Amino acid sequence: MRILISFLLVFLLLMHSWAQGLRIGYISPMSGKYSSFGQMFLNGLSIALGGSANIIMVNSRLGVQGIMDKLENGDMNVIVGPFLRNSVDQLVPIVCSFNVLDILPFNYVNGMHCESVIGFGFYVTQAARELANIIYRRGFGEIVVLYGLTPVSQKAEESFVKQLSLHGIKPLKISHFVPGLATYVEYFKNVFGIYWSNTKSTLLPVTAPLSRYSLHVRTLVVFADESDFVKLANLVGFYGIRVKHILSVGLFLDKKLASLNPTVARRVLIVTPYNQFVENPKNEYFVRQYMKTYGSLPNQISALGFDIGMVINDANPSDLRDSILSMRNYQGVTGDLLFFDNQGKGVFHYNLINYRDFLEYRKYEENNKG
Length: 370
Prior knowledge:
alpha/beta; Rossmann fold; eight-stranded mixed sheet; five-stranded parallel sheet; 14 helices; 15 strands; 19% strand
């Protein structure tokens, strides 16, 4: 593995040589509450480019005219961003008139086809469809689906259920929840039909019946953020609900997710925007360089910045757009890019999080205390 990583390092250095004269316009919030996300993305982008490319920072808070003035005067080879929804809606139709490739990290303008704009990132609807395909291939038995009322959770649930139906699978139950600590327990009890429970259940052996309930399924699917997912999944352990699999999409392995009850974490499988512990040379190089430079594990935003930087590195500089759009089965740290569809939107095979990754994260936390 060390030989592979060393080879990758040499390869990356060679790829950086052409990028030395590259001018990249990076549109990102550089002030306000989202500025930290912009910096995280830049961290990953900078590691991929090796500090050799000329990254021209463009603050998305400048307003449309201010941003366009910066771009027009910058003689850019490629634009990366913006990544906030309102900025995308305002700027992309204008950027479309430029003869410059624009890579959108998190968003894509649905219903608008522009030859100079491509989408590269994590799409929760695509991840939900991928999860449905995994269930079909592996046979996960009876399913209950819980989802929050955020737009992201609702879109994920809709895509997931629709894809399941194409495989002839229908969930036994679909239910939405309203976040709120006081309502979680009653909601959960209603979903599973819990009619008796031992209030001292945490003191009983894990094999003891902690509750009696009427809804028996093999698989629980939860579409929610990390906090809501952890609260609902931990109730599975608390009440001793005998589901074999707890599935989700779009969650990132952080302190919140790592707080799952270990007996629950053993059953979890998540289609994730980034798994820091995936074993491949490119990801190991990225994690090592990130920790060396910034002193912490990278997150999904930094990882996406790295992937986009690497795609730019690996493309033909004389024809960036067509070179990138022709990429097939390209290994990234966020997952494998399978191909770009006819709208210029990346289609991915994303990474997964399972119990082994929880153990790796806890080992990292233990080794980096203080």
